[in-house]
Design goal:
The complex is a heterodimer of chains A (224) and B (442).
Chain A (H helix, E strand, L loop, with lengths): L2 E11 L5 E12 L4 E5 L6 H9 L6 E6 L2 E2 L5 H11 E4 L11 H10 L7 H10 L15 H13 L5 E5 L7 H17 L3 E6 L2 H4 L4 E4 H4 L2 H4 L1
Parallel strand pairs in A: 3-8, 3-9, 6-7, 7-8
Antiparallel strand pairs in A: 1-2, 1-4, 4-5
Helix pairs in contact in A: 3-4, 3-5, 4-5, 5-6
Chain B lengths: L2 H11 L1 H31 L9 E5 L3 H9 L9 E2 H9 L3 E7 L4 E2 L5 E5 L7 E3 L2 E2 L2 E4 L7 E4 L1 H7 L6 E5 L7 E12 L9 E5 H4 L9 H14 L30 E2 L1 E6 L4 H17 L3 E4 L1 H55 L4 H42 L15 H21 L3 H6 L1
Helix pairs in contact in B: 1-10, 2-9, 2-10, 3-9, 9-10, 9-11, 10-11
Classes of the chains: A alpha/beta (224), B alpha+beta (442).
């Protein structure tokens, strides 16, 4: 699966009415199966970029092409379905639903894809991330590292083509950081999933063959 | 994982708030069930099938009071009419059955009405198509025999053979010396009959103080003659004193006897024919100055529409308002939770849930809370009726069947379903419109 961003611009409206440019990307590409670390400072528009790529936020202009389908031009319903089926998301704060067990969180990710829920795959994924003994534990009873591993399993549940990871190790210790990064990278490699991970950590970015700096291609000054 | 499961999980996550919300609905529904059941019981009691008689004759006055007296054994007995008048009615061909009722006395503790009547009463239909049944014994035959209703038997623990005195005019400090013996116990009917004590009319007038004195009779005769009343008149000197001074009690004459009411079943092959006969006869009786004739069905209908119906409507409206208020409680509960759940909704949306999916989850949550509360309320309501029924019965003489199911209860669940959708709309729309990116960043 290939990801191409062309002339993508996004700005937010400040309280005084002025436009605050966040993204101004002439071109950005991720090839099929490629793993990319995107470095950028906090508040640099990394999360907004992921939201634009996943179709959660629409760009003001430009095209977000995933396998030549422009997400920005899709109807919202189709965009939601596309996101559920093709894009996996790992968040910095895990974003597990507290009312659901580890297994249910993974199943929940499958529920919204429009495909039949594959319980067997959910169990396999949780086994893959080393949580087969914690299937029925609620997030509050899991350690921080375990919660992020559940989030990784959930992100891979629908066999996505693209995995977006938003600082997935920012809230975990060094030992868990390496485990989770290994897990994400290995899982993406094994499943032929393209990976785009945003981080502000040079140490994390150093594990990737391709590292891009957001400031190198995001010319927000040009918008202003 | 379907929407209902997701909604149920969400409810469980906020179990305390959810339980309290469902409880408020449950209490509202329980109250409505109790009102509906009690209304059903009262309506049945005051239904058009409450009596098998199509005409009641009594002294001129309030028709409603006459019906309340003779059918429900409520309110104070009105004036009496002469026994001779009853004898005259009894002879009429249009009267298939004419049953005298002599009212006024009560059981010793004043709790239950005494009804002086004749054995023929127990041969009549007490409601259309239903004959009296005895759970023990037989109808009255001897002068001091009595038949008691099922409620009386249960209250006092009386059975056949039990002897008891009665209180004059309901005055518990004025107990007659004469004692009556229970000859039969009626099977429960669910009607006011259950709380009456029927004694032999002849026995009623064997009791000291029940017959009119000779002077009273003479005065009345004079008044009647003056009014040119057509009732057969006895010779003035034939009436003996009710209680001859110092001597042995003499047998009371027909002139000294009175009846409070005459219950008439008109002659006719069908109920329509009987009603037609009653319809023709009543104006003729009402033209006279002795008695009034009332159609009990008409009076009961009036009572049901004017009094019971209004009270029922008021109670149902009040309880419906309570349920609406509980519904607002659900709205407030879900709406307040929305600020805490912005992130939860945003996560679902980020995972691919559509806008209408999160909207449906909120509606499902509201429906689960409402229906859960309603089912709890239905059980609570009937449990309340089951527990409170005997207490109400002992204090008000209204018989409440704890297993009684009011048909209107069937409307509660659909009504609450609609309410659930209405109160879930605004929180649902809030979820529908939620900004995913903003929710994820909170």
């Amino acid at each position: 699966m290939s990801l191409v961003l062309k002339d993508v611009r996004k700005s937010y409206r400040e309280p005084d009415g002025r436009a605050l440019p966040v993204l101004n990307i002439a071109e950005f590409t991720v090839q099929s199966g490629e793993q990319v670390a995107l470095l950028g400072p906090s508040g640099g528009g990394k999360t907004t970029l992921l939201n634009v790529i996943s179709g959660i936020t629409l760009p003001d202009s430009g095209a977000v092409l995933i396998d030549n389908i422009d997400l920005a031009r899709l109807h919202e319903v189709r965009r939601d379905r596309f996101r559920a089926q093709k894009i996996g998301f790992v968040f910095q704060t895990f974003n597990l639903l507290q009312a659901f067990s580890a297994l249910e969180n993974v199943l929940l990710g499958m529920s919204f894809s429009g495909k039949p829920v594959d319980r067997k795959r959910a169990l396999e994924l949780l086994d893959q991330v080393g949580l087969s003994h914690r299937l029925h534990h609620k997030p509050s009873r899991l350690s921080v590292g375990e919660q992020q591993r559940v989030a990784v399993a959930r992100a891979l549940a629908n066999k996505p083509s693209l995995l977006l990871a938003d600082e997935p190790t920012a809230n975990v210790d060094v030992k868990n950081q390496n485990t989770i990064l290994d897990l994400i990278c290995t899982a993406c490699h094994e499943n032929q999933v393209s990976l785009l991970m945003v981080t502000h950590s040079l140490e994390v970015a150093g594990r990737f063959q391709r590292v891009d700096r957001l400031t190198d291609f995001n010319r927000t000054e040009a918008v202003a | 994982m379907n929407l209902v499961t997701i909604a149920a999980k969400s409810i469980r996550q906020r179990w305390l708030a959810s339980c309290l919300t469902a409880l408020s609905i449950a209490l509202g529904v329980a109250l409505m069930v109790a009102v509906l059941v009690i209304n059903g019981v009262v309506s049945r009691m005051f239904s058009q099938n409450a009596t098998g008689f199509d005409m009641i004759l009594g002294a001129k006055g309030s028709p409603m009071q006459l019906v309340l007296n003779t059918i429900y054994f409520l309110d104070k007995p009105i004036e009496n009419i002469p026994y001779k008048y009853y004898l005259d009615i009894k002879k009429k061909k249009w009267a298939a059955h004419a049953i005298p009722f002599a009212l006024g006395d009560t059981t010793e503790d004043g709790k239950f009405r005494i009804v002086g009547t004749i054995p023929e009463y127990f041969e009549c239909d007490y409601v259309p198509g239903k004959k009296f049944e005895f759970q023990a014994g037989k109808p009255i035959s001897g002068t001091f025999d009595a038949v008691i209703g099922a409620r009386v038997a249960r209250a006092y623990g009386w059975s056949v053979g039990k002897k008891f005195p009665i209180a004059h005019g309901g005055n518990t400090s004025d107990i007659h010396d004469e004692k009556f013996t229970v000859s039969g116990v009626l099977a429960p009917t669910g009607l006011p009959i259950d709380r009456a004590v029927f004694i032999n009319y002849d026995g009623f007038y064997e009791i000291e103080g029940h017959g009119k004195s000779k002077a009273e009779v003479e005065l009345e005769e004079q008044a009647r003659r003056d009014a040119e009343i057509v009732i057969p008149q006895p010779p003035p000197d034939s009436a003996p004193p009710a209680h001859p001074a110092g001597g042995k009690k003499e047998k009371i004459s027909d002139e000294q006897k009175q009846v409070t009411a005459i219950l008439v079943q008109s002659a006719g092959k069908s109920s329509a024919e009987q009603s037609a006969v009653a319809f023709l006869i009543m104006p003729r009786i009402n033209k006279g100055s002795v008695a009034q004739a009332v159609n009990p069905i008409e009076q009961i209908k009036k009572l049901l529409n004017d009094v019971v119906g209004n009270i029922r409507t008021m109670l149902v409206v009040m309880t419906a308002l309570i349920i609406v208020v509980s519904g607002v409680g659900i709205f407030v509960s879900i709406y307040n939770s929305m600020s805490d759940r912005k992130r939860e909704i945003a996560i679902m949306r980020a995972l691919g849930a559509r806008r209408h999916t999160v909207f449906s989850i909120i509606i499902a949550e509201s429906v689960l809370l409402c229906l859960g509360g309603a089912l709890m309320g239905l059980l609570l309501g009937h449990a309340f009726v089951f527990v409170a029924g005997p207490i109400v019965e002992s204090r008000s003489d209204i018989l409440i069947d704890p297993w009684f199911f009011e048909q209107h209860e069937l409307w509660i669940l659909p009504a609450l379903l609609v309410l659930a959708v209405i109160v879930g709309l605004v929180p649902g729309i809030t979820a529908y419109r939620a900004d995913v990116a903003k929710g994820l960043s909170e």
